[in-house]
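Researcher: Please predict.
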Amino acid sequence: FWWGSVFLVNVPVVVAGLVGTALLVPDSRSAHPRRADPAGALLSIGGLGLILWAIIEGPVHGWSSPAVVGALLGGVLLFGGFVAWERRVGHPMLPLGYFRRPRFSVAMAALALGLFALTGGLFLQTQFLQFFLGYSPLGAGVRILPIAGLVAAGALVSARVVRVVGTKLTAAAGLLLLVGGLAQEAAVATTAVTYVAALPGMLLIGMGAGLLFPAATDSVLGALSQGDAGVGSAANSTAIQVGGALGVAVIGSVLSTRYQAAMTSILAGRGVPAAIAQQILGSLGGALAVARAIGGPLGAGLTAVARNSFMLGNRTAMLTAMAVTAVGLLLVLAALPSRARPGW
């Protein structure tokens, strides 16, 4: 199949969503509609784009390279400009006053950090299943399906749990399950790991995400008036997208950096041609391709050290995701209200 066909799979889903929205979703309008804020949009897109580029390209160009440092600083400056612009413009894209309400700001942070863990974990699992365990792309996708199933199951019970124990404990339970799943994945990240050994952590991650996302989304939208529901929904979607993008970028870079550090020390002084070394350091898949081409005891040795280096990177990346998610858990426990309050 043409690789671009993966994007066409989404077309029927989008069409169904458009039709369903037109037929089933009630309309809402703000009593005081605001003009568009193109400057704010450009500042936010530019800031996020530069930061993501720097994080993704850091392992390639080096974290101290002028391009990476410049992009990172430029992204931070653009985000600073976005905040300053939103504070002074009369028609902000995202009114910053909303963030004074913990049910909005803390829930947004929980959503972003939860997506950080979920997408970062999925990114690692796809590489683990394909390159380390040797499954085909289809086989890897089938084995990730339990995560999707648990996300759906958790979402179905989330609203009921919120009614019983409140938003705070429901969101905290979701984040705790995410932390536990990531910790389990890190604990089994050895060269002897199997799919069955990694499955419990994957299931915990799925259930945690399913509990967290509806509860946090309900909190975000519930913190605003019906007239501001559109802005709230857009902000909620942005938190999801930003958290997911940062999860893939950061966790992927941690994996690459740790893997490259381990492999660089092994390859040092062995006279490996630059092009071959670049392929080996690029990914576990590249290293395994070189090992197959070499064959014999040397190829087997390269396979063993590459697999070990990959699992070192995998463990470090999982622990990083776990630490970030734990910050979200502490934030929710400390500041997210359990129930709606006036002005919150």
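Model: The first helix runs from residue 5 to 8.
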